[in-house]
Structure formats: C-alpha cells, structure tokens
C-alpha cells in the first residue's frame, strides 16, 4: 500500500479556533486520514500550533504572560479541544520546538549558499511611541485595495491581498495605537523568489494540474502577478533566531525569521519531533528527505493559506537544491461564514470549537461540517440549517434506524441476533444497492470530495430505512416470525456496516454502533463489495445490546437557546 503523508494548516496560537478553522483544514484532514488508514495505507498525519509572529507576542502581552509560557498554555488548550473533536493526529507539535529551529536554520543556510537569500537595507516603519521597529503585523490601517480598516501590514484579512506596511492608509501601531510613525533604515534577509519564479511555475504546472481549481488558480494568480523578493526576517523577541554563524550582525540585532518562513517548515520539524520520541522505530527522513515514490503528500488548508503553501514554501524547498519532499495534492477550502458574515477570532463572532463541544458532542459537528464543507463556494453556517441537518440525517435517518432495529429485535427475539429465513429477493436487491452506494462513497473519498462523500454515506443510511419500510418487520412478525427475524438480522448487519464505513465522519458513534455486537474477532477495517452484498458479518446467535440514543433531536427550545447564546442572523456582517 502507498504511504500517505498528510498535513493540515497549522492553527495559530492566539486563542481557540472557530468552526471555520476546523472545517478548513484539520477536520477534513482527519476524515481523510481515518479513511486511508481503514483502507490499509500507512498514514502519517502531522499538525502543530503555529507559535511565532506578532499576534503571539501581542496576545501574550494582553494575557500578562511571558510569550513562551503563553504559547505553552495555548498549545495544551488547543490540543484538548482537538482531542474533544476526535482529531487523530499522529503527532501535534509546536513550531517553537528545537527541531523546527534546527531545520529552519539549516534550510536558510542552504538558501544563502545557493544564492537565494541576501541581506538588504530597507526602510521600515518605526514607532516613536513604542521605541522600536514595527514588524508588519504590528501595523494596522486601511487596505488600499478594498478599504477594510483593520488590515495588517502583511496581508488584508478581508480581501487576502498581500501588503507591505507602507501600503496601508492611516497606519497605526498595533501595540500602542499611536500613529506617530516614521520610516527608518534597517537590514533584513530577503528570499529571492524572483530568481526561483520559473522553477516554481514549472513545478506548479506539473503538479497543480491535478489540484482543485481553487488551489491551482490561486497559485497561478500569484505566479502571473510575478514573484517578488520577500523579506523573511523581522524585529521580534520571539521566533526562530537568525543563526549567528551565518549572519552575525543580524543575529546580534536580535532578528528572527518571519513566521511564514518557519511555519511551513514545522511540518518537517513536527515529523522530527514525532520521530525523536521513538528514534529506533521512526525515521522522519523517510517521509521528507529523499523519499521514494510510494510517499504521497496531501495538504489541507483554507484559501488564505494557499499562496504560501503552493508558491512560497515550494520556492523555499526548491532553492535548497536538496531532496525535500514537496506536496503532491493541495486540498483547499473556501470560507465557512456565520449567517453570511465572516467568523472572526479577534471579534469573537461565530461558534468557537470549545463552545461547540459544550453544546453538543463532536460527531454532530463533524458530520454537519463535512456534509456542508465549503469546497466549491463559501458556505453559511446557520443554527437553523445545523438543526435541520442533525435532526434529519443523524437523528432520524441513522440514529432512529439503529434504535428501532435493536430495540424491536430485543423485545421480540431477546438479546441475540435472530436467524430467520435465508435471504430472499429483497435482501439481494438491498445488497446490490449497498455495494453500489459503497463504491460511490469510496470514489468520492478517494477524490477528496467530502460533500459528495457525505451524501453517499447518507444514501447508505437511507437504504436501510427504505429496506425496513419495505419489509415492515412490525407487520411481518404477526404472520411470519421467521421472515421478521430475517429482516432484523439483515438490518443488524447494516448497522455493523454503517459502523465501519461511517467511522471517518462520526468516530464516536461508529464505535457505539460496532460495540453493540459481541463479536469475538471483529477486526475488519473496511467492507469489501462481496461483504456488502452478503450482509452477513454479524451471524445469527451473536449477542447484542441496545446502545444509548446516538443522536438526540434538537428541539425548538434548544434552537432558541443557541440563538440566545451565540447570536443568529443579527450577527451577519463583515468582520
């Protein structure tokens, strides 16, 4: 089987993430990772907190903590939420790790040796009120392109255009709010992307033709606009230090690498963190350095991260002239909005992941988000849509099927799967339908088309309900107990099949369904077409229990309480 290296965009350290962050990277990566493991592939799913840069320092200052202590606390807090969502990372690291520092500095040295980093004098914004140079994210102002009045000095959050601090209108310090700014000369390192532009374009042409349109179009837009040389150091107290053995003057001035230089390298760094936990059995280089063709690397990210991962990071790796593994497939997502307006961490708009888990278990959120993943367009989260999806798909279609089959069988036949008649024409038709829908589900999962995969999964669940309505065991049992027993046994085999194939989307509920049956050697990781047709993996005589209700319906009272807590349509608006 192939080896699958999977990464999701690193969540930034300054606070718990909202549902838009979850569905734009980590959750789909987890769903895909789980699926590929079930299909027998060797999977390594790597992620980490992104801990450097201006917002970390500002958030630590606001919290009244040293930045390293703040980042350590926030890493643990975020990891707890991701555990609650059932994200099965192979390793969740930290970009402030010693491993990332080492690898980032090594890559920088290689780029300099190959003529792709040079030291330049530039004019940079200096805050007289703060007595320091201001890195780009320490400067706020109005975007000259879209008029957004809270744009940062490196990028406008609203229109995603890359900016320089001097582009901003009415610029001000993010530290003090002072507009007493002036431009002074200082020195920084530049990555000479212009010298690598043709190589990056050729690389995107070769690999990007298989990416989703969203990812490839953003990459080509950057390339068509022309790659500019980019400063990759900043004046900050917290970050990967410029190595003194290579740039002694800049190191003496306390320069650190720009967060967008070291953050993607943390994918490699986190893999080394993982390997260093068990060096006798784990080899990080087998995934990243001079790897064979069996390793397929897939990245998951929202559209604002695409330029850095499809242009800047590949340029960095290409410029080393070394044999680093580069991404094969970029799965990019549009925005999940909140009633049509942007989720906003800074303005606390929308549903944040810790609060989501306080309201309902993770599987409710996992299924809804993936069934409505913003793949082709932005998708709007509303409590009304969420409620309708949970009640229809999870509570009525899947949860009710499981409960009524097991409860009815237990009431009429006891705690063991009844035998009944041999399978007949209805069961043969059902098996063919299940095999067909399973193949459709696999096709969409293999293609990373998550909304279509969720629709195929829902169709699998619906097929069981259609079969149950056709056979009506509550009527059969009045005249033919053996026929009713066959129907229930077949339905129980469907429950077991659902448990296996639903696991990527709703892992906790899948475990509950599967553990309902006392199967001594239930080691199957997937369901083959022949097994799907036969529907016989749970034989007669197997004891079973009725699990608690899988999915409770959301009531009107619940819905109103959610609106009261989080806001509804009145939250609509730009961040």
TrEMBL record:
Sample GO molecular function, one term: ligase activity
Listed transmembrane segments: none
EC id: 6.1.1.10
Sequence motif 'KMSKS' region, residues: 342-346
Domain of life: Bacteria
Catalytic activity: tRNA(Met) + L-methionine + ATP = L-methionyl-tRNA(Met) + AMP + diphosphate
Annotated positions binding Zn(2+): 143, 146, 156, 159
PANTHER family: METHIONINE--TRNA LIGASE (PTHR45765), METHIONINE--TRNA LIGASE, CYTOPLASMIC (PTHR45765:SF1)
Subunit relationships: Monomer.
Protein name: Methionine--tRNA ligase
């Amino acid at each position: 089987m192939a080896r699958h290296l999977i990464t999701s965009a690193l969540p930034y350290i300054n606070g718990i993430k909202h549902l838009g962050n979850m569905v734009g990277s980590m959750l789909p990566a987890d769903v895909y990772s789980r699926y590929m493991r079930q299909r027998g592939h060797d999977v390594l799913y790597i992620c980490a907190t992104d801990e450097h840069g201006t917002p970390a320092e500002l958030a630590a200052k606001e919290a009244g903590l040293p930045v390293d202590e703040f980042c350590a606390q926030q890493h643990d807090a975020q990891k707890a939420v991701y555990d609650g969502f059932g994200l099965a990372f192979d390793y969740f690291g930290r970009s402030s790790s010693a491993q990332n520092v080492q690898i980032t500095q090594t890559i920088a040295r290689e780029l300099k040796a190959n003529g792709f980093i040079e030291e330049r004098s530039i004019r940079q914004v200096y805050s007289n009120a703060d007595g320091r140079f201001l890195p780009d994210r320490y400067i706020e102002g109005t975007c000259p392109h879209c008029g957004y009045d809270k744009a940062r000095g490196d990028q406008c959050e609203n229109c995603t255009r890359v900016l320089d601090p001097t582009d901003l209108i009415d610029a001000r310090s993010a530290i003090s709010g002072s507009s007493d700014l002036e431009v002074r000369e200082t020195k920084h390192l530049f990555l000479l992307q212009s010298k690598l532009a043709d190589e990056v374009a050729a690389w995107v042409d070769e690999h990007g033709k298989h990416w989703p349109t969203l990812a490839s179009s953003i990459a080509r837009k950057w390339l068509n606009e022309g790659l500019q040389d980019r400063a990759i150091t900043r004046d900050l107290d917290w970050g990967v230090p410029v190595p003194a053995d290579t740039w002694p003057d800049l190191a003496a001035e306390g320069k650190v690498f720009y967060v967008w230089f070291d953050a993607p390298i943390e994918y490699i760094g986190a893999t080394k963190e993982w390997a260093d936990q068990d060096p006798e059995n784990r080899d990080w280089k087998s995934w990243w350095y001079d790897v064979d063709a069996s390793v397929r690397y897939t990245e998951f990210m929202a559209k604002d991260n695409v330029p850095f991962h499809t242009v800047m990071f590949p340029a960095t790796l290409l410029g080393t002239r070394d044999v680093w593994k580069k991404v094969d497939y970029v799965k990019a997502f549009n925005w999940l909005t909140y009633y049509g307006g942007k989720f906003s961490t800074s303005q606390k708009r929308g549903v944040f992941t810790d609060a989501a888990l306080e309201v309902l278990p993770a599987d409710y959120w996992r299924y809804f988000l993936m069934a409505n993943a913003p793949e082709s367009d932005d998708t709007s989260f509303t409590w009304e849509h969420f409620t309708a999806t949970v009640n229809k798909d999870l509570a009525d279609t899947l949860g009710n099927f499981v409960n009524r089959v097991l409860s009815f069988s237990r009431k009429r036949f006891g705690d063991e799967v009844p035998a009944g008649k041999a399978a007949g024409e209805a069961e043969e038709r059902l098996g063919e339908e299940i095999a067909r829908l399973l193949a459709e589900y696999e096709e969409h999962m293999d293609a990373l088309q998550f909304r279509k995969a969720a629709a195929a999964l829902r169709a699998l669940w619906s097929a069981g309900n259609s079969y149950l309505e056709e056979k009506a065991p509550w009527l059969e049992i009045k005249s033919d107990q053996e026929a009713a027993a066959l129907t229930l046994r077949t339905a129980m085999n469907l429950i077991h099949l659902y448990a296996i194939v639903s696991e990527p989307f709703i892992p906790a509920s899948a475990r509950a369904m599967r553990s309902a049956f006392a199967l001594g050697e239930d080691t199957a990781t997937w369901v083959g077409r022949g097994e799907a047709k036969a529907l016989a993996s749970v034989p007669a005589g197997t004891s079973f229990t009725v699990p608690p209700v899988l999915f409770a319906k959301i009531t009107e009272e619940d819905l109103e309480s959610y609106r009261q807590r989080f806001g509804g349509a009145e939250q609509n608006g730009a961040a």
